[in-house]
Amino acid sequence: MADLSETTVPSGTTVGVAPAAPVSRxxxxxxxxxxxxxxxxxxxxxxxxxxxxLVLALHxxxxxxxxxxxxxxxxxxxxxxxxDLGHRVVALDRPGYGASAAELPDGRTLVEQAADIAAAVxxxxxxxxxxxxxxxxxxxxxxxxxxxxxxxxxxxxxxGLDVSGCGTRLAVPYDQVRHGRNGRRLNWGPLSLYPxxxxxxxxxxxxxxxxREAESAGDWERLSAxxxxxxxxxxxxxxxxxxxxxxxxxxxxxxxxxxxTAAPRVRVDRMPGAGHNISLGWAxxxxxxxxxxxxxxxxxxxx
Length: 303
What we know:
By secondary structure, this protein is an alpha/beta fold. 31% of the residues lie in helices and 17% in strands.
């Protein structure tokens, strides 16, 4: 989804390409070679001993890896929390964002992104320890290439798949997704759900949504019917209380779960007090703790 890019955030500040951002305690900037594409990102590692797992986090459309290292409040960073709980956490700038934006100004399709991210997973596994395996955590638009990756490229290297803010039935017209219209309301929900400094800090995590990515958004409802039945790892789906991009009533969610016929386990979580951008709101710590608990469940399954 077009989360923040080219959107007037609620503070009234128009944002575009993200300026350099601060990072949280223990977080460092990295690059990862994903086949022919160089991806940038953020990384954190446990302070004591080897990691229990690698959590690879993928941001939504129009944001950046900094989405998972929110600076508006110390409780927001997935990277810091995950490392404190014994995991190696990497948040990647997806193809067409960050370091690859100049190389891929038009971005990549869903299928191309899935192949690039699969190559990044393999490279990260070569570059450092991954403990019991890799948990792919994807937000919004990133859920689409994440499902594709799990189905087509790397089912044997993934512990599981954790996706938030991504369904199979759009709640808005496709043109609204492609052009990011009404993004303020759809992305945020009530502003009380976010720390007061959110909309100043948000300027550091936004980036233009590449054209090919935006154009491919309309493919998902058709593609998901083909891809979801081939996902063979445990899946956790999270829908925010104020999710507005996707239909997420009981019938809609049941339809999505019903397509995941090969997944050994599917869990659905509802996140009260949250808008679409869960990891930037007050609900972020709760959501991240639940995601990391899912990592532990997946580790026990493979033990």
